[in-house]
Write a structure and sequence with these properties.
Blueprint: E1 3-6, H1 12-20, E2 25-29, H2 40-47, E3 55-60, H3 65-74, E4 79-82, H4 88-92, E5 99-104, E6 122-125, H5 129-133, H6 141-152, E7 157-159, H7 168-172, E8 178-181, E9 186-188, E10 191-192, H8 194-205
Parallel strand pairs: 1-2, 1-8, 2-3, 3-4, 4-5, 5-6, 6-7, 7-8
Antiparallel strand pairs: 9-10
């Protein structure tokens, strides 16, 4: 079954709600560049209240390795998601202690080959923030075709980028390892919508 990660958690109410509705993982963004940034102390108050079997993911963006390691260790995170231009060697620094996800922003099918240099637990494909601001919210059909080949080859793939209750079925049909959603289930930035979370998860898992 395709897993669901609810990203950009900023408050306990949303975290408990997403967990109760069947989310497999929650994402906490520790980059101050994100409008969904959460501090280490605020995240700790949430994480200590979560189901122990729920996967806690820390999202980082080109941050200093020691700072990332300290946050991840103190919060006992399960997975680290690197959302910037982090190198393969940067990722390897964390591999002995944490599961790793590297995010890529493919512009063409050739960009999909970049994953071969990274030895991580899953690869995520997303749309760049700059593109989203200009109205390009979704991965192109040619990119999705290439991602489909990776999935059929057995690569653990997570798909993100402008997903919501209206388009997630199309992505589910590709049978990725997981689907990642943030803005598509929000009332406003950083605040989730109960009905949208419920509908999104049901469409992925039913």
């Amino acid at each position: 079954m395709v897993k669901v990660k609810i990203c950009g958690i900023t408050n306990l109410e949303d975290a408990l709600l997403a967990s109760s509705l069947g989310a497999d993982a929650l994402g906490f963004i520790f980059s101050k560049k994100s409008p969904r940034y959460i501090s280490e102390s605020a995240a700790k108050k949430i994480i200590t209240r979560l189901d122990p079997f729920l996967t806690k993911v820390g999202v980082f963006l080109d941050q200093e390795p020691k700072a990332v390691f300290d946050i991840a260790t103190k919060l006992n995170l399960d997975v680290l998601q690197f959302h910037g231009s982090e190198s393969a060697s940067y990722c390897r620094f964390f591999a002995k202690k944490f599961k790793l996800v590297k995010v890529f922003f493919p512009q063409n099918s050739a960009d999909l080959k970049k994953i071969s240099g990274y030895k991580v637990d899953a690869n995520m494909f997303d749309v760049k923030y700059e593109q989203k601001k200009s109205g390009v919210n979704f991965l192109s059909e040619s990119i999705l075709a290439g991602i489909s080949k990776l999935i059929k080859r057995g690569e653990p793939v997570i798909i993100s980028g402008g997903l919501n209750v209206n388009n997630v079925i199309k992505i589910k049909k590709l049978k990725p390892y997981a689907i990642d959603v943030a803005s598509g289930i929000e009332k406003l930035v950083g605040k989730k919508d109960e009905q949208l979370i419920k509908e999104f998860i049901e469409k992925v898992k039913r």
